[in-house]
Design brief:
3-stranded antiparallel β-sheet, binds zinc ion, globular, 169 residues, 5-stranded antiparallel β-sheet
Length: 169
Amino acid sequence: MAMRKIRTEGDSILLKKCRPVTDFNRRLHTLLDDMRETLIDADGVGLAAPQVGILRRVVLVMDTNKEDLSPSEQIIELINPEIIATDGEQEGQEGCLSVPGVYGIVKRPERVRVRAQDRFGNYFEAEGTGLTARCFCHEIDHLDGHLFTERAERILSDEELEELSEGGE
Ligand code: ZN
């Protein structure tokens, strides 16, 4: 496994639409393994392939609701993911490894169900609520070249960020 460099805002690759994965081969598995390592190292909750410069429909989402699992066990690998159902609404703070230091208030569904393929091409469905639902939406947006900053109702000010970090753990 190897770490990959995370592309940041201003890199035009983040604005491009990704192509579906058609070959579930060793190259895909290497990408997934590298993305896992990169995500855990960055201490994030999700990562999309374009963030490491690959224009393919591949994302990782951490199911943070499963608190008893280790970070590596929480990771769901989603190839060619599609949102098939949503329910409710949540409004909350969102950030992105590709937009470091910036947080915004973004409305997302409270519950999201996705259909995707695993690393061997088998179809499966997964469901998430709260942060995990938010993460499914955020990562799948990346595959169509969208960043959360486009969706944000507003971006938090430096003062608000300071308050958050003081009040945080
Ligand atoms: Zn992101």
